[in-house]
Request: fold
Amino acid sequence: MSDPASQDRSPQEESRPRWPLILGSIVGGFLLVAVGLGLGWYLFYRPIVNVAVQLPAPPAPPAPPGPDAAQVKALEDQIEKQKAANKQIEDQIAALKDRLRADVCTAKDPTGKPPAPAGQKL
Reply:
């Protein structure tokens, strides 16, 4: 039995080849897949890879071969000043310890202060 739709076709339509339509569909499909993969790589994969795979930081520059004479002199001066300040603080602590060993509360002056001269008021 023959198909009624095929009877309505003219002989020219039946003889027209379909390979260009099939080839065009295949090429178009590949192009769409390629565009989709390219956009996916550009929009999603590339930023992730750029963040995840970064170059390590460059190494620090090498230290100079020896200490700078001016810096050493400045440090020695600073150490001497600190020693002098420490000596003053140690002297103050020793004086305060001597005061604590003495009689701080007397009947004449309960606060432990020396008496004021007769003409002065405190």
Notes: Residues 73 and 79 are 10 Å apart (CA to CA). Residues 17-54 form one domain. The first helix runs from residue 4 to 8. The chain has a mean pLDDT of 80.
